[in-house]
Design goal:
Helix 3 crosses helix 4 (109-122), helix 3 packs parallel to helix 5 and helix 8 (218-225) packs across helix 9 (231-244). By secondary structure, this protein is an alpha/beta fold. It has helices at 43-50, 72-78, 94-104, 109-122, 138-150, 168-183, 195-198, 218-225, 231-244, and strands spanning 3-14, 17-23, 26-28, 32-36, 58-63, 66-67, 79-83, 156-160, 187-191, 203-208, 211-216. Strands 7-8-9-4-10-11 form a six-stranded mixed β-sheet, sandwiched between helices. Strands 1, 2, 3, 5 and 6 form a five-stranded antiparallel β-sheet that branches. The model has no long low-confidence stretch (mean pLDDT 93). The protein has a single domain, classed as Rossmann fold. Bound molecules: adenosine-5'-diphosphate (ADP) and magnesium ion.
């Protein structure tokens, strides 16, 4: 099996505080992997290391076959990243945002124009192309941010609470886009606090206090830790157990 992400004992400390504590995780290519855990669990810190944006304190990792420590540049070319605090240019229109990010990724001329149209259609924003990004509603803004994150056709997508604060219909639509990409072979690592979203992932990795406390399919985690309840029950139980450990 080929892994899009492979880490061994990946650790990040800030001073004396260990934000990510010896995480060993594999994510098979083409999988939608949900990364769960309470606030402060270390999810964002782990993702920043996977992006090559933050150096590990200890441990090793490979993303799309590139070493995290030496291959950050190559990783960035092939990874799409979207965080909760987004980075759209609020004073630019929808089309201008796509064009801007496209140029950042080296797209030019006809190729850029084609990709822009493709993504406007993909994200359901054809009628909004001249709308100022700052005036878009939450769901549309999210889809524009998503479109900007995949302009360069990344093989791996890291989505960090990308659906926080959007209405259920928009989340639904967002997930349809995620599945579409996964069907096309893209690997997706997505953090979420919504258990309905977690239930739709191929596999889940649960973190707490910097540690990876469980990995498996939603069904496996439910069987092992659900006590007859749903994924909420798994989440609550694993959060408590590791907090006491
Ligand atoms: N740059 C930093 N300096 C110091 N502490 C940090 C820094 N970044 C994150 N942390 C701490 O690391 C812990 C994990 O944070 P984070 O990875 O953002 O968790 P999550 O995304 O799961 O909510 C938190 O306690 C946070 O305060
Ligand atoms: Mg976070």
């Amino acid at each position: 099996m080929t892994y899009a992400i492979e880490t061994q004992g990946l650790t990040r400390r800030f001073g004396r505080f260990t934000a990510v504590d010896s995480v060993s995780l594999t994510v098979p290519e083409g999988t939608v992997m949900g990364l769960l855990g309470p606030n402060g669990a270390g999810k964002t810190t782990l993702i920043r290391m996977l992006l090559g944006a933050l150096a590990p304190t200890a441990g090793t990792g490979r993303v799309l076959g590139h070493d995290l420590r030496t291959g950050a540049e190559a990783i960035r070319q092939r990874v799409g990243y979207m965080s909760q605090r987004f980075s759209l240019y609020r004073d630019l229109t929808v089309a201008e945002n796509l064009a801007f990010f496209g140029r950042v990724y080296g797209l030019r001329g006809d190729e850029l124009a084609r990709r822009q149209e493709e993504l406007l259609a993909w994200a359901g924003l054809l009628d909004q192309r001249r709308t100022i990004a700052g005036d878009l509603g939450g769901g549309m803004r999210q889809r524009l941010a998503f479109a900007c994150a995949i302009l360069h056709r990344p093989s791996l997508l890291l989505l960090d609470e990308a659906t926080s604060g959007v209405d259920p219909m928009s989340r639904r639509r967002f997930w349809d886009l995620i599945y579409g990409l996964a069907d096309g072979g893209t690997t997706v690592l997505v953090t979420t606090h919504y258990m309905d979203e977690a239930a739709h992932c191929d596999r889940l990795a649960m973190m707490n206090a910097g540690r990876l406390v469980a990995v498996g399919t939603p069904r496996e985690l439910q069987a092992a830790h659900g006590d007859g309840g749903g994924l909420e029950q798994v989440f609550v139980k694993l959060a408590r157990v590791s907090a006491e450990a």
